Amino acid sequence: MESDGRKDMSYNGARVIRVPKNYGRVNFSRDELRQILISVVAMTAIFTIFFYSTVNSWGDVGSTDALLITIGISALAVVLGFLIHELGHKVVAQRYGAWAEFRMYPMGFVLGFITAFLGFLFIAPGAVYIQGQVTKKQYGRISIAGPLTNVVIGSIFLGLWMVFDTGILGNSLNMLAVLSLFLAVFNLLPVPPFDGSKVLKWSLPVYVMFGAVAIFLLLVAWGIISF
Ligand SMILES: [Zn+2]
To answer: How far, in Å, is the centroid of ligand 1 from the Cα of 150?
Structure first.
């Protein structure tokens, strides 16, 4: 059979729709990678400012060591708590064929630095923007993917903390468990623009069950529920 341009465009007379090469695949733009890198560095700095006095109060370490430990915990918390959360949304959205890219909010970091110096923490680092045709169920799954990563990672730190529960290691593991699980619960608030509002729109039973598990694990990490 001969192959001309027309043959390629039709199959048994039906029109063929061209699908972009990277449809359904995970990919990053240069600008997005740059914004992710800036966000990770800025948030690590904000967490370090906020948590330094707590880590310093654990005792048995000099102030330089306390600073290094705080930077380590902060970087881990940001990569595992924030970055993996956002990638969770992005990967699921792109697998469903949507366009999905992270964009930072520079003002969110300014607010983060100010509040960290004042002794409390409020950061709005940015969000994954999604464009494309997805069903309500798919959108719900895209939305729960972020908090789900926090619950999985938080559970791992919680388990490790139950084994190694003393000293600086124990305190660090507990701090990472609390941070991960707190991020899950916070993002599950049932009001826009939080993930919780979109999960709730998709399924009340999923929202209630997942929310209950996240809150329960956070209370265990906080020591309010103990065995
Ligand atoms: Zn999220």
So the answer is: 10
